[in-house]
C-alpha cells in the first residue's frame, strides 16, 4: 500500500471534517492543514500558510512530499490554486480556475444552466444599478432574489418579498458595494417557493458519485428568519429527497452540467454541489458550489464509511469508475453550528471556549472546529461560525437530541445557535 502525505487547504469546519476523515485512511502518512484551526491542530498538523497564498502552498507541497492537496474553500479554487499545483507537477483535488467559475460567477452559472437545459429560475443580468432599478420599477411587483455576481462568502444573495426590498438590495450590492467587486454585475431572478436541499457529487469529469442529499439552514434565526449566513447547521440524509428524486437530480441536473462544462472546454473535476429548491414543478437549481458545503460536509463525512482518501485519489486520476458504491452508516447525522454573538454582522473575538472535552466524550459526537484558534494554550473564538457540533442517532430526532446535548456542554461569552436544526425532517421522519 502506497502511503502519502496529504495537504488540506482552508481553516473552516469543512476542512476539519476533511482532515479528520482523511487521517483515518490507512494510506494517510501525515495530514497537513493550511492554515487550519484549533481542532485541526489535534486531528492533523497545522501549517502557517493562508489558503490564498498560492506560491507558499505550492512550495510547501513540493518540500514536504505532498502526494495530494485537497482544496477546501471556494476562493483559492476560483483564484486557480489547483492549476498552480498541477503546473508544478503536483496532484490536487478540486476544479480548475476555468471550471470554478461555476461558483465564482452567478452570471456564468445561470447562462450555463440555460444552455444545458437544467431547470432553474428565470433571470436577468445587469451591469449597473440604474438598469436593474429601471427593470424592477417597470415590472410587476413580485418576489425576487437579487444576487451579487461574484464570491461573497455565502452572503451575496438577498431574498426579497417585494419591489421596495429588491430596490434596496440593488442599492446595497451595486451602489454601496457591500460585497465589493462581487457586485460589479448582478442577477435578478424569480423567487422560487419550496424546501431547499443540497445534493453534492464527486466527479472526475467522466464518472459521477452522487452523495446522499443534505439540508442546510442558511437564515440566521429559528424558523428561517433573519439575514442569510454561511449556514447555521445541516443534517443528512434528508427525507425530502427520495431515492427516485435523487436519481432524477443526477440525470437532469448533474449529468447535463458536467457534459456542458466539457463542451465549454472547462472539464469539471472535484465536488459539484447543487443547491436546489424543491418546487411543485420539480427540483430547480438555485446555484452551484464547486466544493464540499460547509456545514453539509460535516454530517456527510460523519456517515461516510468508505475511505475518503481512496475516493479523492481516484478522482484526480480519473479512476472513479473503479471505486464502486460508497458505503454509508445508515444512521442520520445532524450538525449544529455554534456562532459568535453578532454573527453574521460584526462580532467579538478571543473569548475562551469551555466544555469541548465534555462534549467530545459523548457517544457518536464529533465537534468540528471552524472559527477557533489556540492562544496561550486556550481555545478561543476567532470567527463568526465557531463550531459545528455533529452527532449521529438512530433517527433524525435522536441525532438532533445528541447534537444539542453536546451543544449544552460548550460555553463561551456570547455563544448562540439555532434551536431548530433538522426540524424540517421531523415532520416527515421522527
From TrEMBL:
SMART domains: GARS_A, GARS_C
E.C. no: 6.3.4.13
Cited InterPro entries: ATP-grasp (IPR011761), ATP_grasp_subdomain_1 (IPR013815), PreATP-grasp_dom_sf (IPR016185), PRibGlycinamid_synth_ATP-grasp (IPR020561), PRibGlycinamide_synth (IPR000115), PRibGlycinamide_synth_C-dom (IPR020560), PRibGlycinamide_synth_C_sf (IPR037123), PRibGlycinamide_synth_CS (IPR020559)
Catalytic activity: 5-phospho-beta-D-ribosylamine + glycine + ATP = N(1)-(5-phospho-beta-D-ribosyl)glycinamide + ADP + phosphate + H(+)
GO molecular function, one term: metal ion binding
TM stretches of this protein: none
BP term (GO), one: purine nucleobase biosynthetic process
Keywords annotated in UniProt: ATP-binding, Ligase, Manganese, Metal-binding, Nucleotide-binding, Purine biosynthesis
Enzyme class per UniProt: ligase
Cofactor: Mg(2+); Mn(2+)
SUPFAM superfamilies named in the record: Glutathione synthetase ATP-binding domain-like, PreATP-grasp domain, Rudiment single hybrid motif
Pfam families per the UniProt record, alphabetical: GARS_A, GARS_C, GARS_N
Domain ATP-grasp: 110-317
Leader sequence residues: none
ATP-binding listed as a keyword: yes
The protein's annotated pathway: Purine metabolism; IMP biosynthesis via de novo pathway; N(1)-(5-phospho-D-ribosyl)glycinamide from 5-phospho-alpha-D-ribose 1-diphosphate: step 2/2
Keyword Iron part of the UniProt annotation: no
Family membership: Belongs to the GARS family.
NCBIfam families: purD
HAMAP family in alphabetical order: GARS (MF_00138)
Annotated protein name in UniProt: Phosphoribosylamine--glycine ligase
Amino acid at each position: 500500500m502506497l502511503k502519502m502525505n496529504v495537504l488540506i487547504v482552508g481553516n473552516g469546519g469543512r476542512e476539519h471534517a476533511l482532515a479528520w476523515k482523511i487521517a483515518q485512511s490507512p494510506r494517510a502518512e501525515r495530514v497537513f492543514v493550511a492554515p487550519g484551526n484549533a481542532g485541526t491542530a489535534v486531528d492533523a498538523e497545522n501549517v502557517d500558510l493562508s489558503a490564498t497564498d498560492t506560491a507558499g502552498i505550492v512550495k510547501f507541497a513540493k518540500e514536504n512530499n505532498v502526494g495530494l492537496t485537497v482544496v477546501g474553500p471556494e476562493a483559492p479554487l476560483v483564484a486557480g490554486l489547483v492549476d498552480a499545483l498541477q503546473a508544478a507537477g503536483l496532484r490536487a483535488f478540486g476544479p480548475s480556475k476555468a471550471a470554478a467559475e461555476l461558483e465564482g460567477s452567478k452570471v456564468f452559472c445561470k447562462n450555463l444552466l440555460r444552455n444545458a437545459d437544467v431547470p432553474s429560475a428565470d433571470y436577468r443580468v445587469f451591469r449597473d444599478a440604474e438598469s436593474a432599478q429601471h427593470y424592477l420599477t417597470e415590472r410587476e411587483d413580485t418576489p425576487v432574489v437579487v444576487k451579487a455576481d461574484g464570491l461573497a462568502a455565502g452572503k451575496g444573495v438577498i431574498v426579497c418579498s417585494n419591489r421596495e426590498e429588491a430596490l434596496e438590495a440593488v442599492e446595497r450590492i451595486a451602489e454601496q458595494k457591500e460585497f465589493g467587486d462581487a457586485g460589479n454585475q448582478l442577477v435578478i431572478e424569480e423567487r422560487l417557493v419550496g424546501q431547499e436541499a443540497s445534493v453534492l457529487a464527486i466527479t472526475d469529469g467522466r464518472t459521477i458519485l452522487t452523495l446522499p442529499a443534505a439540508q442546510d439552514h442558511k437564515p440566521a434565526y429559528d424558523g428561517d428568519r433573519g439575514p442569510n449566513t454561511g449556514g447555521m447547521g445541516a443534517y443528512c440524509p434528508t427525507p425530502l429527497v427520495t431515492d427516485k428524486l435523487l436519481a432524477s437530480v443526477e440525470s437532469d441536473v448533474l449529468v447535463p452540467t458536467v457534459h456542458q462544462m466539457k463542451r465549454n472546454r472547462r472539464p469539471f473535476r472535484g465536488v459539484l454541489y447543487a443547491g436546489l429548491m424543491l418546487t411543485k414543478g420539480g427540483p430547480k437549481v438555485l446555484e452551484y458550489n464547486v466544493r464540499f458545503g460547509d456545514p453539509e460536509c460535516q454530517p456527510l463525512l460523519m456517515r461516510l464509511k468508505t475511505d475518503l482518501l481512496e475516493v479523492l485519489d481516484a478522482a484526480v486520476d480519473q479512476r472513479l469508475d473503479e471505486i464502486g458504491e460508497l458505503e454509508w452508516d445508515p444512521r442520520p447525522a445532524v450538525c449544529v453550528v455554534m456562532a459568535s454573538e453578532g454573527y453574521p454582522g460584526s462580532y467579538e473575538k478571543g473569548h475562551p471556549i469551555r466544555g469541548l472535552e465534555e462534549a467530545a466524550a459523548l457517544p457518536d459526537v464529533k465537534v468540528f472546529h471552524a472559527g477557533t484558534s489556540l492562544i496561550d494554550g486556550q481555545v478561543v473564538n476567532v470567527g463568526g461560525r465557531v463550531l459545528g457540533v455533529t452527532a449521529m442517532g438512530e433517527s433524525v430526532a435522536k441525532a438532533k437530541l445528541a447534537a444539542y446535548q453536546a451543544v449544552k456542554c460548550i460555553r463561551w461569552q456570547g455563544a448562540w445557535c439555532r434551536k431548530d436544526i433538522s426540524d424540517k425532517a421531523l415532520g416527515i421522519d421522527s
